[in-house]
């Protein structure tokens, strides 16, 4: 597994980076994204969830399934791509940013086709998950996952290759 593709953005002196989020994110757009995320998290309709994700700017393939409480980044949803026939499990989180004390990091997240992301997993900014990969429930994906790999743990490590 390899590292992440991240871009650093320094915070203004004397404040943590989260206090500065309105400098490059439109608060109205973030509010809209939050409302769409409520649809994604709680609607029983998978078609409606895909519509809401696309409205947020997420690039979503065909027949993507987002389980109850699944969450995508509300600040940078346009950096997320989810491939065809992928399942994002219950309470899973996909982030495209990290707010740190002295800086913010952003990075694209690319999730391939036919991927399973298990319940309660977190995918961090700058990560690519290859086609056909499986992420075990409760995992923290902080590095790229090769196609066909089965990964799990905190942090996620390869358990098995090419299933």
Task: Provide the fold topology.
Layout: E1 7-10, H1 27-42, H2 46-56, E2 59-60, E3 65-66, E4 71-72, E5 80-82, E6 87-88, E7 93-94, E8 97-99, E9 103-106, E10 109-111, E11 116-117, E12 122-123, E13 128-129, E14 134-135, E15 140-141, E16 150-152, E17 157-160
Parallel strand pairs: 2-5, 3-6, 4-7, 5-10, 6-11, 7-12, 10-13, 11-14, 12-15, 14-16
Antiparallel strand pairs: 1-9, 8-9, 16-17
Helix pairs in contact: 1-2
Structural overview:
This protein has 163 residues and is α/β, with parallel strands linked by helices. Helices cover 17% and strands 27% of the residues. The protein is built from 2 helices and 17 strands. The chain has helices at 27-42, 46-56, and strands at residues 7-10, 59-60, 65-66, 71-72, 80-82, 87-88, 93-94, 97-99, 103-106, 109-111, 116-117, 122-123, 128-129, 134-135, 140-141, 150-152, 157-160. The protein has a 6-stranded mixed beta sheet. Strands 2-5-10-13 form a 4-stranded parallel beta sheet, covered by helices on one side. It has a 4-stranded parallel beta sheet with strand order 4-7-12-15. A hairpin with a 4-residue loop joins strand 16 and strand 17 (157-160). Helix 1 packs antiparallel against helix 2. The relative contact order is 0.16.
